[in-house]
Amino acid sequence: MPEHNQPAVVGAKPEGASDQETAARAVRDMFTSIAPRYDLLNHVLSFNVDRLWWRRTARRFRHILSRPGSHVLDLCCGTGDMTFALRREAGRSPVQIVGADFSHAMLQRASAKAAERSASPAQWIEADALKLSFPDASFDLVTSAFGFRNLANYDAGLREIRRVLRRGAECGILDFGEPRGPIGAIYGCYFKRVLPRIGSLISGVRGPYAYLPASVERFPEPEEMLSRMRAAGFTEATWTPYTFGIAGLYRGKK
Q1: DSSP string, 10-74
Q2: 190: closest CA among 29, 49, 21, 36?
Q3: 140 vs 4: CA distance, rounded Å
Q4: Where in the sequence is the domain holding 87, given as residue range(s)?
Q5: What's the pLDDT score for residue 118?
Q6: Of the candidates 92, 94, 80, 98, which has an alpha carbon nearest to the alpha carbon of residue 38?
Q7: Domains in the chain, number
Q8: Contact 228, 5 (CB under 8 A)
Q9: Percent of the chain at pLDDT above 70?
């Protein structure tokens, strides 16, 4: 692809970040600061629709999760909600699931939730999504729910996901979008004006919830994201909108 056609946006860039390293550090610090109230805020601010998105995404990969011996990585797993959805969909199938995140505080909360449920659905690993310690071709499925958008380099993240996937394996990236039309106008007002105020009030921290709408606005639109996936080497790249396009699932195959 000619250089002048390359997308201008490299990755997430929180306020004050000057390069990819400081952007990654700022994102880690933000999520660490809101870890104690993260789950409550997610459910309140999404009106519990986020639970449906996780379940729906897990169902999309039932053919992999029901296959005995499958290895699954939930990247940028946060407090583990997508990881738990994958485990529930797998049922009793002997599937190995790894939840990885670079925020230690988030992983502590994920582990605590697993203990509260008297179940350990996954192995929790502290890891940088752009520099994963896993060998090439380690997984049959890699998912990421509302975390990929926060990577300091989207293309590098896609290449790293593809690297750890086995041949014929799949990835699923669930993230926010910007709906169009009247729904988009109403949602945009809520997302950019109301949500940051509620989030900041409940969490006691302003930065993360001011950053959230800015990060969604910065994130590539579906066609550009699909183009990036193909450029990274994924085939059968698709996007499925959820709830009028407020969120959506990107899928691709190695």
Answers
A1: -S---TT--SHHHHHHHHHHHHHHHGGGHHHHHHHHHTTHHHHHHHHHHHHTHHHHTSTT-EEEE
A2: 49
A3: 35
A4: 13-31+47-177+220-253
A5: 65
A6: 80
A7: 1
A8: no
A9: 95
